[in-house]
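Board notes (copied after class):
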Amino acid sequence: MRRVKGLEKSTIQAQHIRCKTLYHYIVKILGERFEICQAESEAIAYKALRYLDSKLHGERRSNQIIVKAYEPKKGKETARSLTIRLTYCDLSDIEVEERFGKDGARYNRVIRFFEEAFSQGAVLRTTKVAQIAGLTRTVITRIIRHYRVEGVRVWLRGQHSDSFAGCYRDTRALELLFSGVSEEDLLRRLFMGRRMLQNALEELALVGGLLERGLSVQRIGEVSDLPLEKVKEYIGLWKLDKGNRFLPKAEIESDEYIEEYGEAISRASLSRELSRDYDFTPGAARLFFKEIDSLEEEMRGNRLGENQILYYAVREEIGAGHPIADCKLVGVVLTVYNEEERNTHLGESPPNVRKQGTRMLKENRINRLAVEAKQRCGLLSVEDISYLTGLHPATISLILKGLRARGVEPPLRGVQKDMGKGVSHEVKAIEYYLLGYPEDIIAQRLHHGLDQLVIYQKRFRQVMLLREDGYSPTMISILSGISQKKVEDLLRLYEKYKERSEFGRKLSWIRNLGNGEKKCGGGHGSGD
């Protein structure tokens, strides 16, 4: 039962992230501006993303990072270093998380790193993947072992190229499907989503159709934009199972199908499909392409640093209580990892020190992501951090608790907007003030402006005076317009410090705000 509840929670968290993707944005545009139903909007959005991908063929995407890898070792040759692109986050991660939870998303991301590297003629170290994914080498080794047991090839630096056994994960999924393994079972074993399996079937159908037309292996690779190794695996599977009931036979026989998947999707072909299948008028199609073309530049990653991606966060000014699907988003540039973390994460040290270093890596990454988003007028949630780092939300909560104990407060949306059941950001600011922290230090710690701190002080004064007049927390909430939970938190803070003489002067300053007394008084002093 606990496992089921965990999956339900992961599904909700994954849906939260899905609302921030370009895919969802296109679906939203189609529904709101073109009045297309949900199912058709999703189909069109998928085709629109493929159209954008074809326009960016060979270029770095905004969700990809640049990493250093190596050529596969051959004999006693020294492996030459290469620079490759890796897709750090992808829609498939969300799909897998909805089905199998956070662990499934980790497995999917790690195997994608290895396969994308090999598709570009390179192999990765386990230590490098651990650093990028924010996982320990033990976890990476466990993921590698799992896939090798399932018959999936995992390429590693330090091994000879002829020692790689198995095949691509997509090929293995089709082998299991054709051998009679249930779809649900093979998806669970390989941590895949249904759309991923459907994509593999379409790729196999394309390769088979091109083979039937007499194209060479090299040409099939060029037309299909698939790695040659994968093309060879698909050809072997096609020759054995081309009559399989799972393959889309009618589409394979169609030249139109071959052209659609064998060439980059052109604007004209997508426009014809919109008109033929979804009743778009020429004017509506032009408006739709105008919206899609505006996204093209955002998908380009040429202006990003090697370790950076573009991510969509809720705009800073959006308050609590709004559904994520309705919130305005802003693109923020995030550094998903940096080389400064490498020594902390991978340094040679005793096991207990290494464990401490891994914890520090997670803390640094969480704080850096939150601060970078805040600097670009966006706020990340715990769900965003979980998606970007691969950590469970419960683990993130523990890390945040440890950071707060040391006076570090990452500017997450829940904290900045006083959402959830944690300690109110406002209460924390008032407590720092009473303890004698200078206001500029408080603003820096809590990532707020000085004007916001003045607002906090005035609200605390209002609650304090109403309490001294004998009003209950419920009445204070009604009269002040402040939530009852926040009123109760502020009252607990007031009761904690009101009888202590060393804080009397600070409370007096707050009590007399607006009565002509200087607001800060000793606010920049030592809290006498």
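Comment from the instructor: The mean pLDDT is 79. The radius of gyration is 28 Å.
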